[in-house]
Amino acid sequence: MRLHWLVLAAAATITLANLAWAQEKTDNTAALAASMNVQPCSGTGVDPGSQHQCDLRETARLFLVVGQREAALRILCETTPALEVFRPEGALGPGKFEQNIAANRRCLEVVGIK
Question: Of 34, 53, 54, 57, which is least packed with CB atoms within 10 Å of its CB?
Fold first, then answer.
């Protein structure tokens, strides 16, 4: 079940990141972001960790709707899937606090913020 939520979270993160990049290509980003189908963030069997990640993605999507690409990308770089992808020693590496800081910095660099 955890793997299912992780895959879903990663897919949503990639989708929202693509929307953020699409902002540069379209003048109507709000309509584009608003037109995306989203999964509800609550329901039976949703654990608090998954709920928090879903809330982060939904908040990022709303920032895109109002035209705040950088804010959306900053939020997406804080999601668990993004941190796991960019950790220097991988998702299962030691020292997760330090690894998460490095991962967040790397994510922000990759999306062109820092």
Answer: 34
